[in-house]
Design goal:
Length: 273
């Protein structure tokens, strides 16, 4: 038991160190990375496609990397936005890690890119424990998933800079209790903004993009309690915010890329988060 915990701690510590390096490198390149976490079926791909479209309409240089266990379906959908898109097939791995992300964007991420959206593997457990070197961590949940989900997955929601509620056009039909959901979120992440969105009617899409662009322009994001506790225990800080102008994104590409450094079908992590 102790050995498993020690190994897991070492793996996470190494990941954190690499994440800090990547965050600094992205800051030097003036790239704001956004890590999107959610369960499968939350609607994050549909929402991200709209965000990419709006970004390009506003002449913001944007790119996306999407991770799945199999198929290139999400990459094909996101590529319809006209943004550069890269598909990662994890071969069974339930999350991305900072070393993987660094290897995936090296030689691929177009210059200049202002915003990089990373659609993590659909899973609220494993990805929540791994810092990717992102500037913003956004956790999404649909109205069909249950108002108490933040309490069931406190790491995923408690570590978010922003919580996005999706499929709000279905809220009345499924009897979603917005007050109960808000209470649950605030219990695990006091003060975090909850942004209602709908990929069907476009609600909240521009606001989400505005929030990301504000951080890219130097606004300080919300500091979740989990992140504050982590910094106190490990004594390191994220790279400072950076300022830069807009640029247009160029063409897109998508093709399966297996995440490096792991055997297919199993994770190097000895225990789930």
């Amino acid at each position: 038991m102790c050995r498993s915990v020690d190994v897991r701690t070492a793996v996470l510590a190494k990941n954190d160190s690499l994440a800090a390096q990547l965050r600094a490198e992205l800051a030097q390149r003036r790239v704001t990375a956004v890590n999107l976490l959610s369960s499968p079926g939350s609607g994050k791909t549909a929402l991200l496609e709209l965000v990419l479209r709006r970004a390009r309409e506003r002449a913001v240089a944007v790119a996306a990397l999407t991770a799945d266990l199999a198929t290139e379906n999400d990459a094909r959908r996101l590529a319809r936005s006209g943004a550069p898109v890269k598909q990662v097939l994890t071969g069974g791995l339930c999350h991305l890690e900072s070393a993987q992300l660094r290897g995936l964007i090296d030689g691929w991420l177009p210059e200049p890119t202002r915003l990089l959206f990373v659609e993590n593997v659909g899973n609220l457990v494993c990805p929540a424990s791994y810092d990717l070197g992102e500037t913003l961590r956004v956790t999404l949940m649909s109205v069909t998933e249950g108002e108490d989900k933040p309490l069931k997955y406190p790491t995923a929601f408690g570590g978010a800079h922003l919580v996005v509620l999706t499929k709000t056009d279905l809220a009345d039909a499924v009897g979603f209790d917005d007050s109960a959901f808000t209470t649950a979120v605030q219990r695990v992440n006091p003060g975090v903004e909850i942004l209602p969105t709908s990929a069907r009617d476009g609600r909240g899409v521009d606001i989400l993009l505005d929030r990301v662009l504000a951080v890219a322009d130097g606004a300080a994001p919300h500091t979740p309690l989990l992140a504050a506790d982590h910094l106190r225990h490990h004594g390191h800080a994220h790279a400072p915010a950076h300022h830069h102008g807009d640029a247009r994104a160029d063409g897109h590409e998508h093709g399966a890329t297996h995440a490096p450094g792991h055997a297919h079908g199993r994770s190097t992590r000895p225990a789930s988060a």
